[in-house]
Design goal:
This protein has helices spanning about 1-15, 50-60, 80, 90-100, 115-125, 140-150, 210-215, 230-245, 280-300, and strands at about 20-25, 30, 40, 65-70, 130-135, 160-165, 170, 200-205, 220-225, 245-250, 260-265, 270-275. It is α/β, with parallel strands linked by helices and about 300 residues long. Helix 2 packs across helix 9 (about 280-300) and helix 4 (about 90-100) packs across helix 5. The structure holds ligand PMT. Ligand PMT binds next to helix 2 and strand 9. InterPro entries: CoaB-like_sf (IPR035929), DNA/pantothenate-metab_flavo_C (IPR007085).
Length: about 300
């Protein structure tokens, strides 16, 4: 895949400059019900967590590989997507057009629209310290996730995996999927005689446990989203015990923008992180994780990293 060869050059460049590098996954996966897809099951995620986090990793001197779902929020451009709803989805191509229209050549001689700065910030990072890749279906996500992790192996302990995407736990494997649009009112493809559709969804292979094989020295952070506070700690610790991730960010759907818990093997009670003093939550999360990552790097006696 061409994009992976460009990504490999991006990773090698930053690795040679001793820059820490993070894979940020963002947005929710889609599970198609048909090969010629008309319907799908979606996992909830606006991409706010991933895109805000990417900005703060960049601010800390990291190179960022951003694996996102098209239509979900992008770093910097997230600030204008909602404000300028009329623009629709702000794609990297649209961002370039906006930057060209309102950027350097305007020379500040007229009132620049308020959305120019985020666009400039995006342009400044894109393809230099930030590399974008997109996925739609859960299958595409899992394939890209694996390939990127394998490329990150070259960075040893300098790499971090920050898996904020909401990945479906259930899907329909390709060989079990209907070819064409599932018809209502006609028995077949799961539609039975009384007109009800019975879907059989299969478990998606969990990939967290394999990260250790793909990039064995990377610092791995996974996420846990729950709606029931009573099970958040247990489910978060499970990822540490079962998949050996270094840290888990646990959050509750309704409060996810204001507070979250950070669990590690050493701190099983968890550290409460909250928005404070005008800082968004991601700034708090990334500050703590970067310290933990630098500790992880120094424990390996690794090369000095740029900070
Ligand atoms: O985007 P926002 O609107 O800001 O919302 C952010 C968020 C709530 C989506 C985010 O903070 C979050 O919690 N993301 C993880 C959601 C979740 O619980 O996903 P999960 O239970 O499907 O997966 C748990 C972890 O395993 C995740 O790190 C996921 O990336 C990973 N996973 C899941 C399934 C799978 N097959 N392989 C995986 O690696």
């Amino acid at each position: 895949m061409e994009v992976l060869s460009s990504l490999s050059s991006f990773i090698n460049l930053h690795q040679s400059e001793a820059r820490p590098i993070v894979l940020v996954t963002s947005g929710g996966t889609s599970v198609p019900l048909e090969k010629n897809m008309v319907r799908s099951l979606e996992n909830f995620s606006t991409g706010s967590r991933g895109s805000c986090s990417a900005e703060h990793f960049l601010a800390k001197g990291y190179a960022v590989v951003f694996l996102y779902r098209p239509g979900s929020l992008l770093p910097f451009l997230r600030m204008i997507s909602s404000e300028y709803g009329g623009l629709g989805e702000i794609t990297p191509r649209l961002a370039s057009t906006l930057a060209a229209s309102f950027g350097e050549e305007a020379g500040g001689s007229f009132d620049l629209p308020s959305f120019v700065d985020p666009v400039k910030e995006f342009e400044r990072a894109n393809n230099k310290t930030m590399f974008l890749l997109d996925y739609k279906s859960v299958t595409q996500y899992l394939e890209l996730f694996e390939e990127i992790c394998k490329l990150l192996d070259a960075c040893g302990r300098q790499a971090m995996v920050y898996a904020a995407s909401a990945v479906s736990d259930f899907y329909i494997p390709e060989e079990k999927m209907a070819q064409h649009k599932i018809q209502s009112g006609e028995a077949g493809n799961g539609v039975n005689e009384d007109g009800c559709l019975n879907l059989k969804l299969y478990p998606v292979p969990k990939k967290l446990g394999s990260i250790g094989e793909w990039c064995s020295k990377a610092f791995v952070v996974s996420f846990k989203l729950e709606t029931d506070t009573n099970i958040l700690q247990r489910k978060s610790l499970r990822a540490i015990d079962k998949y050996k991730v270094n840290a888990v960010v646990g959050n509750i759907l309704s409060t996810r923008k204001k507070t979250c818990m950070l669990y590690t093997g050493e701190d099983r009670d968890g550290l409460t992180l909250k928005t404070s003093g005008g800082k968004i939550l991601e700034e708090e999360i990334i500050a703590v994780l970067v310290d933990m990552h630098f500790q992880h790097i120094s424990e390996g006696g690794g090369a000095e990293v740029f900070r």
